[in-house]
Specification:
23% of the residues lie in helices and 26% in strands. It is α/β, with parallel strands linked by helices. The chain has a single domain, classed as Ribonuclease Z/Hydroxyacylglutathione hydrolase-like (Metallo-beta-lactamase, Chain A), CATH 3.60.15. The strands form 2 sheets. It has a 7-stranded mixed β-sheet. The longest helix is centred in the middle third of the chain and has 11 residues, at 102-112.
């Protein structure tokens, strides 16, 4: 195993669309081998990158689970900053991925703004993920499963063969067998756990729904994210431990987790 290759998760936002003093909109930064990856990016993600000591100019990939505003609102600010930051001219390629329909979403965003979002000094690749494909990024790769949510949501499974480590991120989902398939044997599952038991809603998970799925999938560690305020008022971690035997905790903004 090559322990020198980095595989680190930095939580930029662990909340939802509801404003919070302690949780930003969903977003993860991943150091994966030689790449810096942004996984989702709601409002305020660019600032959170800076607060985490990361430079948006170093991003190599951006992966979106779905196009709800709390997960994708900072796409336009990101591309604008890439293009109009004084003294900075990007020349490195940038790959942006999303679920089917993402290209049309991107084109509509581009049409909605009076400034061009198109790249002029670098190659911008906008692609859509597919379930049947291993998306190979040289030293790492990712696969997806489409999980149940009112808007098509791609859950990501990111693997680094040299480290023999696997990270799974759900985005938004409700209880579904596809999540078990996606997370099977993962070293770390970062899953939405939006509401406490008894307060659930369509398209999202509660502890008693999520935890059995994580147990069935044999996940080695579970981190809870996409937490509405009600999830901070009640003990959703203890509720998960009733059904999941591995280590579980709530993710917090700017938490860092290394996969070694």
């Amino acid at each position: 195993m090559n322990k020198e290759a980095p595989f680190e998760v930095i939580f930029l936002g662990t909340g939802t669309c509801v404003p919070s003093m302690t949780r930003g909109s969903p977003g993860l930064a991943l150091r994966v081998c030689d790449d810096l990856v942004l996984l989702d990016g709601g409002s305020g993600t660019l600032r959170s990158l800076l607060q985490a000591g990361l430079d948006y100019r170093d991003l190599t990939h951006v992966l979106y689970t779905h196009t709800h505003p709390d997960h994708a609102a900072d796409l336009v600010p990101l591309l604008t900053a890439m293009k109009y930051t004084p003294g900075f001219t990007r020349t490195e390629d940038l790959s942006i991925w999303g679920p089917p329909g993402f290209r049309e979403f991107f084109e509509k965003l581009s049409d909605a703004y009076p400034v061009s979002l198109g790249a002029e000094t670098y190659r911008l690749q906008v692609d859509e993920v597919r379930e049947s494909t291993i998306h190979d990024q040289d030293k790492w790769h990712f696969t997806v499963r489409f999980l149940r949510h009112p808007t098509l949501n791609a859950g990501y499974r990111i693997e680094v063969p040299a480290l023999e480590r696997t990270l799974v991120y759900t985005g938004d989902t409700e209880n579904c067998p596809e999540l078990v398939e996606l997370a099977r044997g993962a070293d770390l599952l970062i899953s939405e756990c939006s509401f406490p038991d008894g307060q659930g809603t369509k398209g999202h998970l509660t502890p008693s729904e999520l935890a059995p799925l994580a147990e069935e999938a044999g996940v080695k560690r579970l981190l809870l994210a996409h937490i509405y305020p009600a999830g901070d008022r009640e003990d959703i971690v203890t509720a998960c431990r009733k059904f999941y035997s591995g280590p579980v905790e709530k993710a917090e903004d700017f938490m860092r987790v290394a996969l070694r």
